[in-house]
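User: For my dataset I need records formatted as: sequence, then structure tokens, nothing else. Please produce one.
Assistant:
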Amino acid sequence: MDEGYSTRANRRTLALLVRLRWLAMAGQALTIAMLHFGFDLRLPLLPMAAVLAAQSLLNIACQARARRGAPVTERGILALLLLDVLALAVQLGLSGGTTNPFISLFLLHIILGAMLSGPRAAWVLTGFSALAWMVLSRVNLALELPHDHGAAPGGDFLDLHLWGMFICFLLAAGLMVWAITQIRDTLAERDAALAALRLQRSEEDHLVHIGLLASGAAHELGSPLATISVILGDWAQEPAIRQSPELGADLADVTTQLARCKSIITGVLASSGAARSEGATRGDPAVFFDQALRDWRAHHPGPGLDFRNDLAPGQEAILDLSLRQALFNLLENAETAGPGTVALHIFREGDLVTLRVTDRGPGFAPEILAAPAQPWNSTSMREGAVLGLFLCHNVARRFGGSLSLRNLSSGGAEAVMRLSLWPIAGDL
């Protein structure tokens, strides 16, 4: 497990110990008051209150440390548990030592140490508790029982010792149930986090495989496209073609489509994570997206596109061809969703650049809204569309952003991609 996860786990453990100590102190205070005033036991209230006050100060210090975000180590957790054992030993020493029925509360700290800090901490707490037990058997203040203790509540059915064992059982059971419930919730959160990490790793591995396939396809297509380009160049010099306007126009169209094929291969490489080094560039995001939309409109003259770019020009950031391909994927998905105007709005939202694409189609299917980042999760039959949202999600994540989808109440759908395009100089 990485260091960051261990730190977060230790902080959660510290928070659990703080809450558990507050509950334990409340139980101690209630028990002391009940025994002293209800059962007429003569307890040294002032020293016992001082121990509770010291524990309260320790708890307040732990809470302040947690709020500051200070690092928490396993040794620190063990030290806190040892201090709790020491406080319990002092309280027992002030109230009968090993004859006190609450002596079994030592087991509570050992169990907590085993659950929260592992077997080594549990053995350390066991040894320290055993040492405290031996000291208490020799050094303690004897309980001053009332002369009429037989008339205490319970009378002949339960003497004071049995009442103490019963209260100890209730206190230990309540604390253990609460602690185990909290630990169970923490383990559930950890399992969910691990599952999310496994899913992310699986998606990243899948993206790597796509990149390898794209690289292989580009390598295989490179040679025939280069050959076609050479042949087209030779044909352009042929007298018959130069003298025929129709053949010249056809040759120009073929040359344009060949250039587009090369551009598509470059975009596929960029979006799959296998972009060449020249894919990353320095540029103005406002200019970059304006140029991308001009290229889009050049190859999609049919559908209406309502485009608005509110980014302030004159900034410079690290850009990538994968951004262009991701934007094209969103626009193509919106275009194929159904007839109507496709709208694109690009603007700044805090520290993020937001690309919002809307359409007037039937909206996203429930399975896509539930898992937009899953590969092959698409209801579109258009070739290549099954990977569009998956690639957009990974591009957004690579730039520290996110992709969110929703259906509009007025009809249609909305895809919002947020990107953290950190500027090289100035604010974006």
